[in-house]
Amino acid sequence: MKTIVEPQEHIAKLWGKQRIKEENTYRMMKYVMRVDGDDKVVLHNVVTGQLVELDPTEAEILTHLPEKYCDSMAQLIDDHYLVPNEFDEHQQVVNMRTILRKLASAKPKEGIRHYTILPTTACNARCYYCFEQGAKIVTMTEETANDVVDFISTHCGEEKKVSIMWFGGEPTVASKRIDQISEGLKRRGIHFNSTMISNAYLFDESMVEKAKTLWRLQRVQISVDGLEERYNAVKNYVNPKDNPYERVMRNIQLLLDAGIHIDLRLNFDLANYMDFKGLVEYAKEHFKGYDDFQFYAYPVIGEYPDNQGEVLHGNDEWRKKKSVELNDLAREAGVYRSKRELPHLEYKGCGADDDAAVTINANGTLVKCPEHFEEEQSIGNLKEGIVNNTRVQEWKEIADHETCKNCVFFPKCIRLKYCSAQDRCYFQDRNQQFYETVKRHSMNNGVQ
Asked: Which domain of life is it from (predicted)?
């Protein structure tokens, strides 16, 4: 057995080597990905992150499983590719997550290093599927922006290095508050970089320059809703000055030319998925030469009526099927080249269950999830800090889905009880993506 990618050190140390029992009958562990090609068999352990190429004898063993122990199994057992029939790998992963969380909580606190900031909940677009429909419009005041700088300065830790995601609403609607916070952090000697979720309509040459130099913007996720006619109808911008579709495409070019990474995403439904091919062709013609550009499709989830009152989100099976189909099209065109690392055991899901992350609302309240910014979700405020530790702990509770236990990606996937998306499966399309990642690593001897 040849190791192509070493296991994650902290996981390998925790799990150790598996003890061989010659009287056991062994089978493949559930959380192992297999890729066949070029006359070789490659296995990836989704718990440890290790990637190996089997020799012919080991590959032959796999065709006879479950099988009584033989000497040729030794390395496969050592590294947990093969396990006894009665082994419960699901419980093993649960136990390891618990230990890793406890180890992390026992470490000295390094401060809050990841901030999602809503400068405003206002938006210049009126997308029918927006989850923030009906939310109270609040734009951050100068005083609150100063409080943001004070809070980050106090809680960022000794290294004074933080990351910021600008969220909304549409963040650029309140670009002055972004300026103010960025300037304040710079004056305090706090090192930061930022990302943003934006529709990109309000960017122009001067804002792009400011985003690069003052905001230290490294990446923008931009949603599209189809080709020109459909896009303009769905976005339904407030008082547009020109053709919104053309303006946004121009701004994407400006951002890319400034060296800012763009993740362009089609939020697709039954009415616009057929536009994806045309958008891929446009992206291929205009943006393919940029290494900092990705274009992919993601389904609209939730029963939101559009401007004509129709619900266009499709059912679960349709969304899963279309996600694979559309993203395969983008990969084939060379505009979707996501460089994901090989999957391995995770013990934190997102910023919501991470003590080093917090969301700051436009009114100065603190919450754990930017999609749950309601007053009742508050864990504190900029003046007093985090005061509702009960709510903080509730966001760390993991949901237990019976159907997930046998999924090969279970070690990678964490669903939080408090999360409104806990019932969604994000790995249907990523299945193909991860298998391609494994294949790429195996062909390049672990180098992407």
From this structure: Bacteria
